[in-house]
Design brief:
366 residues; five-stranded parallel sheet; 14 helices; 9 strands; 48% helix; globular; binds fructose -6-phosphate
């Protein structure tokens, strides 16, 4: 007889391949270390007229979190670029924040090259690779972060420098004040969701259990847009499960229609609503109506309630719940959360087309 699924979550304590859990458990510590590192950042550029963060996957999500955290206060646009080229408006007055954990990602190196050619103001955060090598050689400002982690687990090291840079540049304010609350909350969430906490008292284990064999869909709103995106990425990369995300209120204008005739298909999904006790009334009504509609169609409905006061604490603590859940879901699904075989395969296969080498040789000519 198959082992009951609950045992699988409980047994995570004894499952060797759970090292990804440690990155979650140590989240607050990593943020503190990242803060010490980021303290070294010196801003030498004049005020930009716009900001572009260039980074892919686990290195790009920091840009999305920054954009959402800052959206109610910045007076200049922040764009997240996940492409080979920067948008046409990028120029001398653009601040480009380049983030690549390995420093060797094809699209990010290409965006770096593009930023150099357009004489943008550039700041890089990476653990090494061609990015740091070239930044050092070309006297471009950079922050070297510790190596040896899966990029998505290095989020503290890639997100915090962006926030610190923006604050030191006078483009945002309040990050430092919000940081202490956020880190204290991360510590609490880590303790509450650690592997040794039984499912009854562990929100992330229970959430993973409820997702079970379904494919999670995460619905956020406003600044939870990037948090929903992070959930999706973590379910993909850690749990090895298809997942998708969407955002209120846009999803009320299209996504919701897709459930009308989903039939048996709806049983294959769980919808996770990212909630906040201070969500605007208009959004609250939309969430409630959407839940009712999806309930009628038989979609599993789940929720994550944000904790904390400041926006940073709310965002990062919700991210951490998603990170933990994705690792527990991996264990439930019998997969190792750490490797991302397909991403590695794709990168290796693409190397053969020589594009990355071409970018690197163009960089060498500068
Ligand atoms: C996350 C992960 C990927 C990478 C992405 C970009 O753990 O493996 O999402 O983050 O392929 O690579 P880097 O981060 O090295 O620029």
């Amino acid at each position: 007889m198959a082992r009951p699924i609950l045992d699988d979550v409980e047994n995570i304590r004894t499952v060797d391949r759970s090292s990804m859990v440690n990155f979650c458990v140590n989240s607050a510590k990593l943020y503190r270390e990242a803060a010490t590192l980021a303290d070294k950042i010196k801003v030498n550029y004049p005020k930009p007229s716009n900001v572009i963060v260039a980074g892919m996957g686990g290195s790009g999500i920091g840009g999305d979190l920054l954009k959402d955290w800052a959206k109610n206060q910045t007076t200049i646009p922040i764009e997240v670029n996940k492409d080979y080229q920067l948008p046409a408006y990028a120029g001398k007055r653009t601040l480009v924040l380049i983030t690549s954990y390995s420093g060797d990602t094809e699209e990010t190196l290409s965006a770096f090259l593009d930023a150099l050619k357009r004489k943008c103001m550039i700041f890089c955060a990476s653990s090494g690779g061609a990015l740091i090598e070239n930044a050092e050689r070309l006297d471009v400002q950079f922050l070297r972060v510790p190596s040896g982690m899966p990029p998505r687990a290095a989020l503290p090291y890639l997100f915090l420098p962006l926030l610190v840079y923006m604050e030191k540049a006078g483009l945002v304010s309040g990050a430092s004040e919000e940081f202490s609350e956020a880190v204290a909350l991360l510590e609490k969430i880590s303790a509450d969701n650690a592997a040794d906490k039984p499912t009854m008292e562990n929100y992330s284990k229970a959430l993973a259990l409820n997702i079970g064999k379904t494919s999670p869909i995460i619905y956020g709103y406003d600044f939870y847009r990037s948090v929903a995106m992070r959930f999706k990425q973590q379910f993909n990369e850690n749990s090895k499960v298809p997942a998708k995300w969407d955002v209120f209120s846009e999803l009320n204008h299209n996504e919701i229609v897709g459930w009308e005739r989903a039939g048996d298909l709806s049983k294959s999904f769980s919808a996770i609503f990212l909630r906040d006790r201070e969500e605007p009334k208009a959004i609250q009504s939309r969430i409630e109506i959407t839940r009712e509609l999806m309930d009628q169609e038989g979609v599993g409905l789940l929720e994550v309630q944000a904790q904390g006061k400041g926006r940073l604490a709310r965002m990062l603590s919700t991210v951490l719940i998603g990170d933990f859940t994705s690792v527990y879901l991996a264990i439930l699904r019998g997969v190792d959360p750490a490797p991302v075989k397909t991403v590695t395969y794709l990168k290796d296969t693409l190397k053969q087309n020589g594009f990355r080498e071409k970018v690197i040789s163009e960089l060498a000519k500068l």
